[in-house]
């Protein structure tokens, strides 16, 4: 069965009041994300990978020099789907409950987490991702280049921010720090993060 592009969890214009235009989603979801799905289907058509789950494809092709194209497209399909769910209208601010307690325990404070996450997102050279992950029961912030993700390293993703330039250029031009700040203040879907922590 062909890999599918999951629907966005909100309308294209739902985040406009919170710093992300519908045009961003027309290009980023409608063209970039779709292209990864289309490319993955072309690359896996007729192979044993075509019937595997996206997660299985990512794990099976990571660091396999003969399958770099498959890994890149599979991981980007997964990363983008995870990113869309990391956003929500009127999000941002601070989490509550078990997630807030865990962030305080593992980072010292929410402010320390926000500082570490912002720094990872800002200093990822070129294209990539900033992540909040569960690594063996401890929350950590990491950054990954290009298509790489925590799944490939056996870690559990809790939250992500896409720092490829096309993720923010329409809204922020080349001002990545402004995009990161807005993400934390107005867009983070802490409910999604809490669900991921509960399943970690």
Summarize the structure.
The chain has 200 residues and is mainly alpha-helical. Helices cover 50% and strands 12% of the residues.
Write the layout of secondary structure elements.
Elements: H1 22-44, H2 54-61, H3 68-85, H4 97-107, H5 110-123, E1 128-135, E2 138-145, E3 156-162, H6 169-172, H7 176-187, H8 190-199
Antiparallel strand pairs: 1-2, 1-3
Helix pairs in contact: 1-3, 2-3, 5-7
Overview of this structure, please?
With 200 residues, the chain is mainly α. Helices cover 50% and strands 12% of the residues. It has helices spanning 22-44, 54-61, 68-85, 97-107, 110-123, 169-172, 176-187, 190-199, and strands at residues 128-135, 138-145, 156-162. It has a 3-stranded antiparallel beta sheet, with helices on both faces.
């Amino acid at each position: 069965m062909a890999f599918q592009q999951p629907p966005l969890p909100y309308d294209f214009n739902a985040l406009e009041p919170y710093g992300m235009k519908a045009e961003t989603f027309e290009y980023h979801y409608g063209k970039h994300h779709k292209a990864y799905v289309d490319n993955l289907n072309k690359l896996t058509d007729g192979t044993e990978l075509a019937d595997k789950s996206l997660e299985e494809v990512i794990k099976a092709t990571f660091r396999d020099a003969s399958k770099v194209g498959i890994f890149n497209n599979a991981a980007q399909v997964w990363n983008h789907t995870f990113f869309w769910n990391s956003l929500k209208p009127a999000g941002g601010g601070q989490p509550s409950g078990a997630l807030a307690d865990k962030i305080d325990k593992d980072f010292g404070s929410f402010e320390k987490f926000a500082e570490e996450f912002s720094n990872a997102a800002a200093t990822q050279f070129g294209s990539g991702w900033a992540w909040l992950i569960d690594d063996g029961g401890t929350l950590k912030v990491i950054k990954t280049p290009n298509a790489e993700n925590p799944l490939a390293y056996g870690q559990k993703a809790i939250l992500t921010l896409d720092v490829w330039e096309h993720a923010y250029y329409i809204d922020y031009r080349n001002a990545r720090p402004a995009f990161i700040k807005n993400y934390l203040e107005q867009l983070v879907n802490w409910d999604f993060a809490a669900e991921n922590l509960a399943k970690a």
